[in-house]
Amino acid sequence: MEIITSIVSLLSGLAIFLVGIHQMSAGLENISSQRMQKGLSKVSNNRFLSFGFGAFITAVMQSSTLVTVMTISFLNANLLSLAQGIAIVLGANIGTTLTALISSFATVEYAIYLSLFTLVGVLMEMFAKKTKTKKFAQIFVGFGLIFIGLNFASSSFQTPEMKDFISSAFQAVNFPVLLIIISILFTILVNSSTLVVGLAIILVSSQTIPLEYALYIVLGAEVGTTSTGIIASLSGNANAKRLAFIQLIFNLLGTIVFTAILWIFTDEIVGLLNNVNPNFQVALFQIFFNVSTAFIAILFVNQLEKFSKKIIKDDTTSLASMNLQFIDEKLLVTPSFALTALHKEVKRMFDLTKENLILSFQSIKSQTPINPDIVKKNEETIDFLNGAISLYLVKLSGEHLSYKDELEIGKLYHLINDLERIADHAHNFILIVEEMVEVGSKFSGAAESELNQMTDQVLLMYDLAEDIYQNDAVEKLNELSVLEYVIDKSKSDFENNHVIRLRTGECSLEHSKFFYDFTSQLERIGDHLINIGYTTINVVGDEKENEKKFVSK
């Protein structure tokens, strides 16, 4: 009966420990995500800066698994180079050792008092009003729960029956390779090398198993932890798969080498570690393993990159148009990075929409459809992107966001709708030209010249609106307003001119429908472009306010 009670105590303690790790990691992530994005933009392709960044951010976030999955997501979103991703993951192997040290402190005398951090965090959560304070409260709660969980789990080994039961179980698998395999499988099962290493620390500090058993468990956990990255990369691009492959090979080779050394020199290594407090023996071994292997591997990043490219080839098929090339569900946990990827996806919409505008304007000028199949395909892709990005924005809005990120989401939602409407107009132009060809209608030279002027004005305005959005060039908004005014005036003037041409017989009545369709829709495109430009200072675009500013000049 005592064994059952002890097992329940062990499992409960480990569960509390995992909750603590998750809470602290989530809190640290909420505070550091903006700094992560700034840091990532600075490390560039310098392997040593990327290496240090990986170590630092993992130590801060307390999760090498999360950092690895995020890095794979960044590669899949083309936010990182492969060499940069390799260096970050190698650095993460060093940063994760801090968690083992924290776990070691949880097993020392008086460590239970550190669990009071949970009480401090709860009080902060209850009485704090500022969002930032609440984020720190989450960190404190998680930090305290780590010590509560490990202390609870450690207490399960105080009964002789439990110690004998666990000790006998390990004696039955008294073979290094078997211990490593079991550790690998268990790490994959619980999806946490931190939990496995923490359990090894408890088993050694409570003198339940020999130290060498725990060291083999640590080596197995280093291999098992790569499973998360492998799974995350399966739906990714070639570089994402390469990074997961490199992490697996790197950890596997390191484990093989250290297993051989430990197997041959067991007495010497155990004797050396016995000079250290038993609570810290496992953590120090993990630190030595991760630091030594990572520092060796960082010197061969280029070779690792070339090797992975030989094993995993580039995608032979071109990227399908009806898919998302940059945004990834895994990026949702880091909103700042998700927004960076979103901006790249929106840039695709800008490019496709402009291509359709150019083709449709060429069709208007030549009065014959130019590449209508391409326009139709692009239009379908733009519609898909509008829907997919909108859905992603809805999901992202459910995450913990800063006020700045909330505004950015609102801007993007309205912006992509304006782009989609512009693309609709471009597609309509092709349909109008096709109808003109079908009925044998042709514009007069004067009408053709006026439409060409308007299309040139719209293209100029399109480039300016995109520049304002991409570069936050608010100083160019007045210039955009002037262009919209010019387009509005052109519509009015050209339609009046067309009435005169109808009276003089220069144009026929059957042309009027097509001419007015073109001028009206070109003017509407100008309205959408002014909205896009003004999303830089207003979530929904501020056309009315813009008109007031222009009129007041």
Q: Can you describe what's shown?
A:
The chain has 553 residues and is mostly helical. It folds into two domains: 2-156 and 167-311, no CATH class; 329-552, Methane Monooxygenase Hydroxylase, Chain G, domain 1 (Up-down Bundle). It contains 23 helices and no strands. It has helices spanning 2-43, 47-61, 64-76, 82-95, 97-105, 116-127, 131-155, 160-171, 176-190, 193-205, 211-224, 226-233, 238-264, 266-273, 281-297, 301-311, 335-366, 372-397, 403-439, 445-471, 477-504, 509-534, 543-552. α3 (64-76) packs antiparallel against α13 (238-264). The chain starts with a helix and ends with a helix. One of its GO terms (molecular function) is sodium:phosphate symporter activity. It holds the Pfam family Na_Pi_cotrans.
